[in-house]
Amino acid sequence: MTDEPILLQATRDGVLTLTLNRPASLNSLTDPLLDAITVAVNAARDDADVRAIVITGSGRAFCSGQDLRVADDNGSIDVARHLREHYHPAIQAIRTIEKPVVAAINGVAAGAGLSLALACDLRVAADNASLVLAFVRIGLSPDAGSSFFLPRLIGMARALEMAMLGDAVDAQQALQWGLVNRVAAEGALPTEAHELAERLARGPRSIGIIKRLFNGSLDSDLTTQLTAEEEAQVEAAATEDFIEGVSAFFNKRAAAFTGS
Ligand code: T3D
User: Fold this and answer.
1) Which residue among 26, 60, 105, 141 is best mutated to probe the pocket of ligand 1, counting the most ligand atoms within 8 A of its Cβ?
2) Given 65, 76, 163, 178, which is the most exposed site by the fewest CB atoms within 10 A?
3) Is-catalytic flag, 88?
4) What is the helix (H) or strand (E) element at residue 61, kind and residue range?
């Protein structure tokens, strides 16, 4: 039997696709897998060939969350250390990379697997996908950023219902709630997610600035945010892509952005 990598990586058309590859346990998360995600996303920061990222799962699931079989020699886990050393770096890497990250949710996303999808900028779900904040089912509370992202995405009432009942939300419901951006037919998901990411990859440098600006707005006030917008616009207006965008506009042609 060959030892397959637990995280598959492929770059095409400026899009890095990261595929969680532990299908036997529905791509449950182990420390090496979380660390591999962190390393891959951080490596993409300064890689000019990567202008967008897709995260997806192999087999029939996106990710079933923490691998529940993993425990240390004493049969337990130092949860705080574990979260700080392995989960938080992965979530922060996805949130802070100034390149768009798309989750292609190809089946169930459960527990911290849903947190991972929520940390991404955009979510495309297969029509047979289901999203479940499974923590409460095993007596835990949400982690890996889900208590931050979920109320902001779908409102407190729906977020609390998902967290307290732990019921699965199907793809259509998720779309209606704004939990995912798009739903694709199961077989078409890889192509649709790639096309969306490729479109973002062809976009200007300001897409990364937009990500930083909107992230900052989540815990900001108007005065702070107006200043942040001002600073962001100064930065965007100094890019080559802005010069190209204006030139393309007046020459009535499509802009050829380089991401710089
Ligand atoms: O620091 C810390 O450690 C705390 C951090 C916690 C973060 C968390 O994510 S806590 C939440 C962990 N996740 C869950 O509680 C979800 C557990 N899984 C499920 O509830 C179900 O598997 C699903 C709803 C995701 C899918 O159900 P179904 O019926 O489609 O599949 P299944 O038959 O339950 O699972 C298929 C196989 O995957 C099965 O193995 P087997 O019997 O074929 O050998 C199952 O045991 C395995 N599997 C699924 N999820 C996990 C898992 N193995 C290990 N860990 C899992 N999370």
Assistant:
1) 26
2) 76
3) yes
4) strand 61-63
